[in-house]
Structures are given as structure tokens and as C-alpha cells.
């Protein structure tokens, strides 16, 4: 959305000159055909407005786990390393280089000299060392990303440009530490990391491409370009994430030009927008999975149980029967209308080396007749009214947590009521604006679940380990849904120390196999990234990966950092509206439209996650 801001000189930003200055050798930026942007000549600035439907759980990088929050932190803080937008291989971030000792127990990172905090102080190795040490010594600071530092023995900064991390045992994620590095001189003043949400004083000091300047709960969060960002400042003068509880309202705002970009479209919304002038729809393989999560009996590390989950779901035969009574093909065809791939393993097919699917003998395909047999054999008989009874003689009735803002949850819920109803099992679909409270309390039977997976799958695997359970029932943990399985834990420990890529991939697949067999997680689909933006506001923007990639929720800051305002692009292009792809290293120029793309968190309790 283009809005009025106080006039100020617009710096010259010729696209090619800026791209060559980035140092992203071998990457490509997609620049799409656009139309003239109706920018107010008196405004002197441009604003890119992104519609979001998810609340911010925290602006503290130590606590935030929802996708919107972690996406914003990728914009405001640098990580040691980043992911190339072309193919997601590791590239420099705050660290320019890294080496390991022969035994892989000591890692040394060279910290760049040209990264500056937005308050003018230089970012150094001491900031990184302090960030990691705080996570190692304060359990509250480890809430969001503690799995990355749990194996750290010592972290030091012998000089401003050298960071040394010593491990207890080898760790496979040392070039994929997805942890925002914070400024020590600001954060060392925080006394309680469990309560500090970093949302009282603005602008918030960071060293990423954007600086957070304002925030109103469930209204908006505003960011300005970090003019000191080492890779080059973003090209829009302001970036705003605007909250919309209703998806149709967000789409209407896009059509009116009140917002620039809308993610998470329904198939019907996407189809309608494809015919609209000045709007481009992106339909590409996503990095998320969509699943049913079963409450396995909420418990804490001290052994105490809590919550009111239905104990019938502790029986693996009940979970198996529910699994067999879910028709994934129908869900992909009818709910996602073909804009998804049928779910199988925990890692989406986009991550080819880690993608797993069950063998024919292992696969639990849709088979309601077999589900009936499983329940009968396990002693769950039907009464005269056709109602399935539990071992206590009471009818089997379950509850499922549903996100009120997600139409997919509601649609799938209706199918589950029908399919499980034929088994004699009742299902109450409880749709809430936020399912966080009942989820962390263990007050649910099942829930609609979903995560965005990073190129390195360690984090989304870690949330199902016993070590992520809350310390006591009153505490919060990094667990997704209280799974604690010793066999899964053993495999996780093995993959965490395995540096051989093929061997580690095999272990990750075995973990997915185990998760599949236990029936605690039923991955139903891998939804496409369905999103749209206004070409009269955004002239060009980077997808990730380059071929058929997403814009929202990327592993990095590439989309919003690279976005070029239409009016600005036309000024620099002499009025041309032709889109190009600029291959930095090869200097390849190719015309490309987004419509040609193939149509193929972190724990936030249950909301849309990273």
C-alpha cells in the first residue's frame, strides 16, 4: 500500500548497482511484469503493506515462536548464517566464514566488520557470544530456540571479529543456527526473560535490513529500512504488517489497493484474484505441512500430568483407527481444491533429501472398514444406537481445536465429523480466535497443527523430544503437543551429531517413520503457498526458492528486502514495465511472469507456526 509520509530525499537505488553490491554470487532475483504505481507525488515515500491474520506472540527473539513473529525477527536481526534464496544452501550472515576443528567439537566464526546496530554501535562477536550464553544459562531465554544451544559447552569472543563455540559432542546444525543475534548493550539490561516482550520502547535496536518502529497488538507492526544494513537498504520506505482477523477482508483490502500483499489465500480467493487487474497470484509448493495432532497425555518433565485430554487417545489402536478414517485425497481435492499435495511424512517434499513416505505395507491409506475392525478388536464396541463406547462404557466423543481464522480447519472438521461419525465416534469442532491457552494447558483431545519447515529440519524434529516438555505443569516448554517417545529421542540424538549428509538424511527419515507409526501426528497435506500482490505497488520481488518458491514466511529476508516499488522501478527503467530476472554472477536476463510458476516455528502452541 502506498501511503503519505513526510517528504524526504529518495536515495538513488538503481537495481543492478544494488544487486552487485550484495555479494550474493550465483543468486537470482525475480522481477515481474508490473503496471504503473499510482504513487502520490506529494508523499515522497512508499509503503509496502502485508496483510497478516496471526497475532504476534512476542517481539522478543527469545520467546517468539509464531510464524509472523519469527518472520519479523528475520527482518530485524541477523543470524550467523543465512540461506541462499536460489536453492537454500548456507551463505554468510553476520558471520563471513566458519571453520571447525578436526574433531568437530570447536567451531570458529569470523564476524563481519560492516554490520552495525541501528543505534550506531558495531555488531561484534561479543553480541553473539552473549546471546548464546544467555540461552545456555537462563531457561527462559531458551524458550524459543534452546535446542540449538543445548549441546554448547562454551561460547567465547576472543576478539570483536572472532566467535568460538565449543561443543559437548558433534552437532550437525552448526551452519544452520537459526537464532537471532541481539545487541548485548541493550539486552543485558533485561531482568526477566520470561516476561520481557520487547514491545515498549521504539525503535527497537537491530542489525537486520529493517528496524521495528511501532507496534499495536492485533493492529499492526511497522518497520523502516535500516540504512546501515551491510547488504544494502531495502527499497520501500516503510514496511507494515497489518492485522486482519477475516481473510475475505484482507482480500478486499488488496483489491482496493489498501494492502500490497496477502498470504494464505483460499483456492476460491486465489481463483477470483487471478482475473483482477494489477494483481499477481503466486501458487507454488510450500514449506508447511497441515496435520492432526493428538494429545498423548500432557505431562511435565517432573513426571506430573495435567490437562483434560481424552484418555482413549492414549491407546495406539484408537489413534490408528482415526488415522485410517481420514481420506487425504478427498481433502486435497475438495478442501485445498488441488492446491496441495497429499500428506505422508513430516517433512514436505520441497526438502527432497529429507522427504519420506511410507512403504506400501506401512502406509495407512483411507480404509474405514479396516478402522472398524481395529476398534472392534481393541474392545471398543458399538451400542444399539451405533455409538462407539470406550473402555469405561462411555461414548467415544472427542474435541478438536480449530483456528477460527482458518477456513481449512473448519472445512476439514466437517469431513472428520462425517468420517468418524460412521465409526460411531463423536467430534466437537471448537473454533477459537487463539487456541494457545487450551493447548499449553493440555485441555484438548486433538488439534489442527502445522509448521513451516526450515532447510535444516532439526528444529521441527526437536519439538517432539522429551527434553522440550515443560519443567512443571505451570511452566511452558518448547514442545509441540507433549510427545515423549524414547525411540524417537534416540534417533534425534543420532542425527544431531551426524555430519555425513546421507546418513543424517536416513536418520531423519527413520524419525518420520517412527512419528508416523505412533499415530500422534497425522500429516494430511502439504499446502501450496497461495498468495497475491499488487503489481502497481510491487514491481519486483524475490521468491524462495527461485524456481516455484514462496514469498511469505521465507527462510530469510529476501522477499521484503528485495521488493522494488513499481513507481521507483519505472523511474530507474525509464518508464519500462518489463520484468526481468537478473542473475548476479552470470548476468543472465530473462523475462519471467509469476503466473508461469509450477502449481504443485516454532512452537506457538497451535497457531500458524514457523
From TrEMBL:
Keyword Transport assigned: yes
Alphabetical UniProt keywords: Membrane, Signal, Transmembrane, Transmembrane helix, Transport
Could you tell me which CDD domains the record lists for this protein? PBP2_NikA_DppA_OppA_like
GO MF annotations for this entry?
peptide transmembrane transporter activity
Q: Where in the cell is it found?
A: Cell envelope
**Matching SUPFAM superfamilies:** Periplasmic binding protein-like II
| Signal peptide range | 1-38
What name goes with this protein? ABC transporter substrate-binding protein
Amino acid at each position: 500500500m502506498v501511503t503519505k509520509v513526510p517528504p524526504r530525499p529518495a536515495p538513488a537505488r538503481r537495481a543492478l548497482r544494488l544487486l552487485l553490491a550484495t555479494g550474493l554470487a550465483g543468486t537470482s532475483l525475480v522481477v515481474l511484469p508490473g503496471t504503473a504505481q499510482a504513487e502520490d507525488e506529494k508523499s515522497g515515500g512508499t509503503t509496502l503493506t502485508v496483510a497478516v491474520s496471526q497475532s504476534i506472540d512476542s517481539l522478543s527473539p527469545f520467546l517468539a515462536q509464531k510464524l509472523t513473529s519469527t518472520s519479523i525477527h528475520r527482518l530485524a536481526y541477523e543470524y550467523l548464517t543465512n540461506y541462499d534464496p536460489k536453492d537454500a544452501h548456507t551463505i554468510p550472515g553476520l558471520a563471513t566464514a566458519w571453520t571447525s576443528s578436526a574433531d568437530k567439537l570447536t567451531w570458529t566464526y569470523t564476524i563481519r566488520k560492516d554490520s552495525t546496530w541501528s543505534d550506531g554501535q558495531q555488531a561484534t562477536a561479543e553480541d553473539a557470544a552473549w546471546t548464546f550464553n544467555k540461552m545456555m544459562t537462563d531457561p527462559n531465554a531458551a524458550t524459543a530456540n534452546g535446542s540449538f544451544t543445548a549441546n554448547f559447552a562454551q561460547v567465547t569472543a576472543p576478539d570483536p571479529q572472532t566467535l568460538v563455540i565449543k561443543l559437548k559432542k558433534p552437532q550437525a546444525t552448526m551452519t544452520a543456527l537459526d537464532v537471532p543475534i541481539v545487541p548485548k548493550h541493550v539486552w543485558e539490561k533485561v531482568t526477566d526473560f520470561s516476561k520481557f516482550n520487547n514491545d515498549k520502547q521504539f525503535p527497537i535496536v537491530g542489525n537486520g535490513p529493517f528496524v521495528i518502529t511501532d507496534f499495536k497488538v492485533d493492529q499492526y507492526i511497522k518497520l523502516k529500512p535500516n540504512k546501515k544494513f551491510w547488504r544494502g537498504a531495502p527499497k520501500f520506505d516503510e514496511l507494515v504488517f497489518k492485522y486482519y482477523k477475516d481473510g475475505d477482508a484482507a482480500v478486499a483490502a488488496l483489491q482496493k489497493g489498501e494492502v500490497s500483499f496477502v498470504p494464505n489465500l483460499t483456492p476460491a480467493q486465489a481463483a477470483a484474484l487471478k482475473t483482477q487487474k494489477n494483481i499477481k497470484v503466486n501458487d507454488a509448493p510450500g514449506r508447511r505441512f497441515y496435520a492432526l495432532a493428538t494429545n498423548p497425555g500432557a505431562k511435565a518433565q517432573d513426571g506430573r500430568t495435567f490437562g483434560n485430554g481424552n484418555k482413549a487417545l492414549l491407546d495406539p489402536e484408537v489413534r490408528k483407527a482415526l488415522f485410517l478414517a481420514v481420506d487425504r485425497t478427498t481433502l486435497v481435492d475438495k478442501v485445498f481444491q488441488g492446491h496441495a499435495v497429499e500428506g505422508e511424512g513430516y517433512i514436505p517434499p520441497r526438502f527432497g533429501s529429507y522427504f519420506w513416505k511410507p512403504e506400501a505395507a506401512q502406509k495407512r491409506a483411507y480404509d474405514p472398514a479396516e478402522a472398524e475392525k481395529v476398534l472392534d478388536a481393541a474392545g471398543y464396541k458399538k451400542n444399539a444406537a451405533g455409538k462407539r463406547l470406550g473402555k469405561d462404557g462411555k461414548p467415544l466423543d472427542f474435541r478438536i481445536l480449530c483456528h477460527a481464522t482458518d477456513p481449512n480447519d473448519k472445512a476439514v472438521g466437517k469431513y472428520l465429523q462425517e468420517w468418524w461419525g460412521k465409526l460411531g465416534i463423536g467430534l466437537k469442532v471448537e473454533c477459537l480466535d487463539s487456541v494457545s491457552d487450551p493447548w499449553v494447558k493440555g485441555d484438548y483431545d486433538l488439534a489442527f497443527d502445522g509448521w513451516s519447515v526450515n532447510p535444516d529440519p532439526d528444529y521441527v524434529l526437536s519439538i517432539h523430544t522429551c527434553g522440550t516438555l515443560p519443567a512443571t505443569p505451570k511452566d511452558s516448554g518448547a514442545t509441540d503437543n507433549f510427545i515423549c517417545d524414547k525411540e524417537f529421542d534416540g534417533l534425534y540424538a543420532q542425527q544431531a551429531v551426524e555430519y555425513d549428509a546421507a546418513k543424517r538424511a536416513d536418520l531423519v527419515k527413520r524419525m518420520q517413520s517412527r512419528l508416523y507409526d505412533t499415530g500422534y501426528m497425522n500429516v494430511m497435506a502439504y499446502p501450496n503457498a497461495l498468495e497475491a500482490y499488487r503489481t502497481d505497488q510491487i514491481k519486483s520481488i524475490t521468491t524462495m526458492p527461485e524456481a516455484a518458491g514462496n514469498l511469505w514466511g521465507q527462510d530469510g529476508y529476501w522477499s521484503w528486502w528485495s521488493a522494488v516499488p513499481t513507481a521507483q522501478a519505472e523511474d530507474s527503467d525509464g518508464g519500462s514495465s518489463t520484468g526481468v530476472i537478473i542473475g548476479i554472477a552470470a548476468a543472465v536476463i530473462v523475462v519471467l511472469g509469476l503466473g508461469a510458476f509450477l502449481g504443485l516455528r516454532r512452537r506457538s502452541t497451535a497457531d500458524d507456526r514457523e
